[in-house]
Specification:
By secondary structure, this protein is α+β, with helices and mostly antiparallel strands. Helix content is 32%, strand content 27%. It has a single domain, classed as Transcriptional Co-activator pc4, Chain A (Roll), CATH 2.30.31. Helix 1 packs antiparallel against helix 2. The longest helix is centred in the N-terminal third of the chain and has 16 residues. The chain is flat. The two termini are 14 Å apart.
Length: 96
């Protein structure tokens, strides 16, 4: 849902600032989950993506390193989606 992406954008921003230990896209649907966390003081992060067509019988995941410079882009892309598909009754521009 768009609200999940808005929340993830906020968490990515907070992760860059060092305010939270991880940014997690954890939607209501159990088929997808993404978590980013800091692994060292040099600005290296790990991203773990969990995705499956059947969460009751399968588990698929992969991890890879990303740089801190990727996080603002991830947050910006989430905001672009939120602007294109706004949540009814919520502000979009500068409200995300």
């Amino acid at each position: 849902m768009v609200t999940d992406l808005i929340q993830w954008a906020h968490e990515c921003d907070a992760l860059v600032k060092g305010e939270v230990p991880a940014a997690e896209l954890d939607p209501m649907e159990p088929e997808l989950k993404v978590r980013i966390w800091k692994v060292d003081r040099l600005g290296h992060f790990t991203m773990r993506v969990q995705l499956t067509p059947d969460h009751l019988t399968q588990a698929h995941s992969f991890e890879f390193e990303i740089d801190q410079t990727y996080l603002p882009g991830i947050a910006a892309q989430c905001r672009t989606i939120a602007d294109a598909y706004p949540v009814r009754g919520q502000a979009t521009k500068d409200g995300v």
